[in-house]
Amino acid sequence: MSLFKARDWWSAALGEGEEFDQGCLCVGDVDNSGTGHDKVVVGSYMGMLRIFSPHANTKTSEGGPAEALLLEVQLQNAIIQVEVGKFVSCSDLLHLAVLHPRKCSIFSVSGTAGTVEHGDQYQLKLVYEHNLKRTVCNMTYGPFGGVTGHHSLCIQSMDGMLMFFEQDSYTFGRFLPGFLLPGPLVYNPRTDSFLTVSSARQLESYKYETLAVATEAESRQDPDLPPKTGGGKRLAPDWTFVLGETALDLCVPSYSHASSSILVLGERNLYCLRDNSHIRFMKKLEFNPSCFLPYASVTDGTTNLLLGNHTNMLLVYQDVTLKWAAQLSFVPVAVRVAIPEIKGVVVSLSSDGRLLCSYMGTDPSFFSTPKVEGREADYEQVAAEMKMLQKFIREASRTQDILPKADAEEDLTVTATVSSSMDSPSRALIQDISGLSVPSVTIQVKEARCVVQSSKLTVAIQPPLAVTQDQFALEPMGDPSLETLGTQIWPRHSAG
């Protein structure tokens, strides 16, 4: 639990019933306004694309965005990932790449200054799109091959194929060896290589040149089989690093004075490696992380990063040292750093569509506990209540024993009365023994009961006497009752 909360600067609730994930958020000057203010682009799994230009205190009475929403478009397919880059040849303008399950679309966002009070108008125009033959998982972009002036795209499919696109043309595709499930994918411009985490729970690096000269991927092949004649070399990673756990995200910081670092967020650990796979540091996490983002550090040779977890916390680390912790109102699935009106605004997105622009600070919260209206005390009522409570305490202390005490009256009372004369005639089950008659005597048993259920009466005698009936089942009765039972005792054989 943090002492400080992330200070809300701007927030919005994005629809109802929509779902968002790690790749659904990006920031950048997507409309090429030239003001230096980043826009916030959000796509949902329901196919809704929204572009915001956050401003402080722009909320309606319902709490939603007002002037900040520049564009809202319903697309036909689910949006898996959004990125901003130079994806159009012969153009230095930024464009928006939207990844769908079976398609990748490149859009241009343009704004027209308004002449009336309704403000500026923004339009989304499709530049080109790639229809994909495979269902895809994620993508990355960068100056592949060391080219300058524009960005190429690399899309990873669900069956392990990397598809490369240079602007509006398809370049080539390669299957990753030993593939089982797709993992995070990122491009490292310093070494011109691609990094991913395989199902073997190891970080793998593939150079772009190695991918370009490898065997052409027309269909997935057994990695143990030799490559087809006339093709390239069999694809193999340039280096691997065993993580031992599933990776949630990968990131390669690209700011100017950053050290050559590769950051891997695992389920339980944070790894920082150099470009040659040598580890710089490793941080064991005592919580379940949800997302992270490296950002520029003011100290050379160090790496700063934001890390969100499932306890609604946003943590700031410098290498392995925790520098700050702030409380959020939700679990962030994606976090970015934007430059709108103030520098260093942290943009966070939850899985249910809560978008928040916040900043770190020690400003006190303006919420204060409301005062409780005082009332005059009724001393007579208080005294009566105190006496009653003291009485309950005394009674409880007197009766507080280890074993419960028996009731004042017994639940069952049994009285046996033996007749003073023999039965006439005898009611013994055996009428004579050795020519002699067998006498019997009647015993009356009187039983007085309170609320006792399922009781049983047993008559036990010593030999040589016998009894006509030794057990009686008593019927359950709710009210106290008196019942008389009778049985006869007689000698089973002669005493001599």
Give a brief rundown of this model.
The chain is mostly beta strands and 496 residues long.
Number of helices: 2
| Largest sheet geometry | 4 strands, antiparallel
**Which parts are unreliable, with pLDDT below 50 for 5 consecutive residues or more?**
58-64
Helicity, in percent?
under 10%
| C-alpha geometry | elongated
Mean pLDDT: 82
The count of strands amounts to: 36
Query: What portion of the residues fall into strands of 2 or more residues?
Result: 35-45%
Would you kindly provide a written description of the structure presented here, covering whatever features stand out?
- The chain has 496 residues and is mainly beta.
- It has 2 helices and 36 strands.
- It has helices at residues 208-213, 379-398, and strands at 7-13, 25-28, 39-43, 48-52, 69-74, 81-85, 95-100, 103-112, 121-131, 136-142, 152-157, 161-166, 169-175, 185-188, 193-197, 202-207, 239-242, 247-251, 262-266, 269-273, 279-284, 289-295, 304-309, 313-318, 321-327, 332-338, 345-350, 354-359, 412-418, 432-433, 436-437, 441-449, 455-458, 465-467, 471-474, 481-491.
- Strands 1-28-27-26 form a 4-stranded antiparallel beta sheet, with no helix packed on it.
